[in-house]
Amino acid sequence: MLNFIRQCARASLASLLANKTRSFLTMLGIIIGVAAVIIIMSLGAGAQDLIISQIKTFGTNKIGILPGKAESTGPPASAFGVVVTTLTYDDAQALRNNPQIPHLTGVVAYNSSSENFSYRNISYTSTVWGVAGDYFEVEGGSIAEGRFFSEAEQQSSAHVVVIGQTVKNELFGDSPAVGANIKIRNHIFQVIGVMRPRGKVLIQDYDDLAIIPNQTMRKLILGIDYLNFIRATVDNEANMNETVSEIKAVLRSR
């Protein structure tokens, strides 16, 4: 048996040496194949860790509310860019501090649009959010300079804006931004605050953003009376399913 094994080994070695090029190419193919599998698995694990980290940063206790009917096989039509006008500011207000939804800790109404900003002879295009409600409770972040707009400014459709660091740098550079006036779609807005740098979370760049009162956004910028979406936070992940059901019940009753 031992002699048989030795003979097989000698025959295999002789075959390899007799066909050096073919043997080399075979080995090279195996090495490349194994290396490719290892690299793909490493990239997959790294991407998974990155996505999980981003979701944790964004918050695992958030609920997104989009207008329109959701089928069991997918999201509502509004998620694909179809305009649905059934979600209103009053809906968002009905969810805030509602005793029927005891685990809800924050609600924010949103409208968004890409707009051109101008300051003196400088122009820059970025995203504008019109928000109302518990913004910092839901989105996080903080003010670096100045302040955020008040509920009174929200209700009066005030022409005030809070900008992210990227917008500030593009329009003002090293000059002070708070107190300056900028144009958004040819309307004058006073900069009352600059957000602290935060970077990207998932697909949202919180530094490349301007925030104005939701009522100002709907009436002055967009000329509509409905919301694009609502975001809400829950006190504990364990209460997510219960809270979703309660939100659905309130909105359906409206």
Q: Can you walk through the features of this model?
A:
The protein is α+β, with helices and mostly antiparallel strands. It has helices at residues 2-18, 20-58, 89-95, 135-139, 151-155, 165-172, 214-222, 240-253; strands at residues 62-65, 104-119, 122-133, 143-146, 160-163, 181-184, 187-195, 200-201, 204-205, 209-213, 229-234. The chain has a six-stranded mixed barrel with strand order 2-3-10-5-7-6. The longest helix is centred in the first third of the chain and has 39 residues, at 20-58. The radius of gyration is 28 Å and the shape is elongated.
Summarize the structure.
This protein is an alpha+beta fold. Helix content is 41%, strand content 27%.
Q: Which structural category fits the helices and strands?
A: alpha+beta
General form: elongated
- Sheet-strand content, in percent, reads 25-35%
SSE string, helices as H and strands as E: HHEHEEHEHEHEEEEEHEH
- What is the alpha-carbon Rg in Å? 28 Å
Amount of helix: 40-55%
Low-pLDDT regions: 50-58
Number of strands: 11
For the largest beta-sheet, the strand count, sense and barrel status come to: 6 strands, mixed, barrel
Specify the number of helices: 8
Output the strand order for the largest sheet: 2-3-10-5-7-6
User: Residue-averaged pLDDT, rounded?
Assistant: 85
Distance between the termini: 85 Å
